[in-house]
């Protein structure tokens, strides 16, 4: 029997690979090689300048998982993720639902709530550093007007993580509001009008119609916000530098601390922590896709 003709001529396949080569080269250069180098360094010792020396296998990982400080860092990272993702997504959802009400100046309010999206991490951290200033900060000024004692927002281990998380929530709020506003705008007006004709309004309309239809957007924000929280570094470095007493030292900051902070160049230990961070990010993303996406799909 004659062979069926190929779905695409060889020339077209070659042309497709030619178009793909620039993207593959960039991918290999900026993702593939650094990933390989991280695994390589994590399996080698290093000298005072950070250059790899002898092969040590899993010694860095053994020392890491045998350290009580590492589990404290994992707990701090988990708390930071909870303190930023949950309030950030739920707060944006509440704001978007309120903005869907028939309010005057709603466009101005939407622009105001989306404004944090225009701030860089460094500028937002500096602004919150001024707010948290123990002597001249706005927050302690408000507490003094309420006849409450001043709080050590960034120097008390009990307050520091919450303070950094609050700055992170504000920083991500604009993006979350924009995504959910776009989601609400994509809901057909005929759906909401039909629900209103059936007597649904206010909280019932939001609970039965708006929030379920926003399921894919909420799922997207939860995944992206979790990854961003696990990778947050700038605000921690500017506001607390991982302190006080390592109260705000997350996994990503621990990588920086081992590799660069205070003249350190322990790239092997830092790379092992980076590999663990990669595994944590992949695991969290896989769990969210396995659990939340299924609920969104069957909602």
Could you walk me through the main structural features you see in this protein, from its secondary elements to its overall organization?
The chain is an all-alpha fold and 299 residues long. The chain has a domain at 59-121 and 156-298: MetI-like (MetI-like fold). The protein is 71% helix and 2% strand. The chain has a two-stranded antiparallel ribbon. Helix 1 crosses helix 13 (267-298), helix 3 (68-99) runs parallel beside helix 7 (157-185) and helix 10 runs antiparallel to helix 13. The longest helix is centred in the N-terminal third of the chain and has 33 residues, at 10-42. The protein is globular. The termini are far apart. This is Glycerol-3-phosphate ABC transporter permease. The chain crosses the membrane at residues 14-36, 74-99, 111-132, 160-184, 205-227, 270-292. Keywords: Cell membrane, Membrane, Transmembrane, Transmembrane helix, Transport. One of its GO terms (cellular component) is plasma membrane. Residues 70-288 form the ABC transmembrane type-1 domain.
Structure characteristics:
two-stranded antiparallel ribbon; 2 strands; 299 residues; globular; MetI-like fold; mainly alpha; 13 helices
Short recap of the structure:
This protein is mainly alpha-helical and 299 residues long. Helix content is 71%, strand content 2%.
Helix count from the secondary structure assignment: 13
Can you tell me the CATH class of the domain at 59-121 and 156-298?
Mainly Alpha
Helix and strand content put the structural class at mainly alpha
* Approximate shape: globular
Taking all residues together, what is the mean pLDDT?
87
Radius of gyration: 25 Å
Proportion of beta-strand residues: under 5%
- What is the ordering of alpha helices and beta strands? HEEHHHHHHHHHHHH
Number of strands: 2
> What oligomerization state is this entry in?
single chain
Low-confidence stretches: none
């Amino acid at each position: 029997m004659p062979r069926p003709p190929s779905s695409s001529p060889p020339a077209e396949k070659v042309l497709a690979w030619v178009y793909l080569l620039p993207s593959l080269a960039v991918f290999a250069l900026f993702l593939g090689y650094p990933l390989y180098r991280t695994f390589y360094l994590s399996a080698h010792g290093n000298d005072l300048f950070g250059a790899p020396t002898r092969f040590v296998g899993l010694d860095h990982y053994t020392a890491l998982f045998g350290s009580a400080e590492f589990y404290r860092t994992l707990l701090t990272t988990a708390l930071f993720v909870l303190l930023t993702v949950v309030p950030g997504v739920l707060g944006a959802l509440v704001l978007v639902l309120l903005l869907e009400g028939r309010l005057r100046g709603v466009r101005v309010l939407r622009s105001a709530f989306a404004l944090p999206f225009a701030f860089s991490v460094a500028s937002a951290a500096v602004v919150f550093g001024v707010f948290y200033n123990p002597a001249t900060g706005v927050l302690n000024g408000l507490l003094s007007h309420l006849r409450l004692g001043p709080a050590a927002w960034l120097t008390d281990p009990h307050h520091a993580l919450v303070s950094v998380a609050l700055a992170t929530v504000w920083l991500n709020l604009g993006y979350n509001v924009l995504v959910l506003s776009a989601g609400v705008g994509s809901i057909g007006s005929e759906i909401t009008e039909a629900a209103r004709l059936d007597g649904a309004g206010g909280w019932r309309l939001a609970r039965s119609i708006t929030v379920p239809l926003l399921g894919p957007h909420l799922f997207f924000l939860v995944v992206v916000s979790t990854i961003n929280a696990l990778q947050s570094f700038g605000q921690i470095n500017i506001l607390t530098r991982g302190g006080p007493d390592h109260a705000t030292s997350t996994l990503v900051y621990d990588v920086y601390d081992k590799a660069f902070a205070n003249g350190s160049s322990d790239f092997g230990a830092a790379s092992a922590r980076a590999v663990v961070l990669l595994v944590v990010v992949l695991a969290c993303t896989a769990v969210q896709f396995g659990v939340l996406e299924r609920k969104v799909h069957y909602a």
